Amino acid sequence: xxxxxxxxxxxxxxxxxxxxxxxxxxxxxxxxxxxxxxxxxxxxxxxxxxxxxxxxxxxxxxxxxxxxxxxxxxxxxxxxxxxxxxxxxxxxxxxxxxxxxxxxxxxxxxxxxxxxxxxxxxxxxxxxxxxxxxxxxxxxxxxxxxxxxxxxxxxxxxxxxxxxxxxxxxxxxxxxxxxxxxxxxxxxxxxxxxxxxxxxxxxxxxxxxxxxxxxxxxxxxxxxxxxxxxxxxxxxxxxxxxxxxxxxxxxxxxxxxxxxxxxxxxxxxxxxxxxxxxxxxxxxxxxxxxxxxxxxxxxxxxxxxxxxxxxxxxxxxxxxxxxxxxxxxxxxxxxxxxxxxxxxxxxxxxxxxxxxxxxxxxxxxxxxxxxxxxxxxxxxxxxxxxxxxxxxxxxxxxxxxxxxxxxxxxxxxxxxxxxxxxx
Length: 423
Fold this sequence. Notes:
Helix content: 10-25%
Pfam families: Hexapep_GlmU, NTP_transferase
Shape: globular
Number of strands: 29
Radius of gyration: 23 Å
Protein name: Glucose-1-phosphate adenylyltransferase
Distance between the termini: 56 Å
EC number: 2.7.7.27
GO molecular function: ATP binding; glucose-1-phosphate adenylyltransferase activity
CATH architecture of the largest domain: Alpha-Beta Complex
Pathway: Glycan biosynthesis; glycogen biosynthesis
């Protein structure tokens, strides 16, 4: 487990973190209609990308670049508001790098490696000694300094962050074979039949999408790959397999550098890339002792926070009492004679009299009408639930009106609500 007292170290100060945040996240359905997956809200006040960025800052890395592409406006706005505290005068930098056809006037980012290659002149101008390449769409706490030190000590060309997952859950990952020294002997991107860890037939070793390189070596590989007409310009499909075959690649176990508070008992990492996974990860935060401790002051999750008044609970009559039990309620929420149970409310939510929320994830600015009942649901930003509407109790009706998953979670957007009035 990571020693959280090591917030700054020489290797981290010589490192740039480069966050790949251009993904659409199509499995989140309507949640990513107007925003990239890394910009999706999480945990009451954060965005998903805040976890990778906070890990970098808490690890002592003070040079950060973020590559954006798909529907990036809300993401760029969030980054400009919440991550503008890094200062060039302190040898720090924070660059938002949209796909801007820097290499060719008709070429967006062709892949994850291309998203770095197209900005290589900007990166090299900062002269970092090491590069940490990060995915911007996972929820976890990790000390990258420990991984950097492991990379330097091993003398590897690339070090790949990895975690153990159930074998058939690894179909969406890059999967590795390693020897006794953790050297990667084979790397297969998103295999249909993932190879198991030797001796453990139900478990696979999966890539976290975290890579450490020396900057000089990375530059060589990106330029070599850019000159290859057969490359898809992707780290997992092209760069890493090439290095495994022609160089030295080592695996770094997430268990070695995971950050845990005294309240956390496991190595928490989540890809919240489906509606069910997103709902579950948010609802899990309402546990008495959640697996993810977002109250850990030694490893804070930095973000942009609106200046808001406190949450407010009003009315105290039988049947009309503003209450929240086993729930997270953000600033500027008013629970006005309604009840909230095992739910997570983002900023500015209004819960009106006689209404009930149960196992609901409610994004900013939603209004719950009088007498409405909402259970096992995600309400997108700004949804206005009409008085008396019931969600989560009639599977057939929910499936006709909203986005309902096989496990019974409903995703509700304002256009879906508006269509109800037109029927």
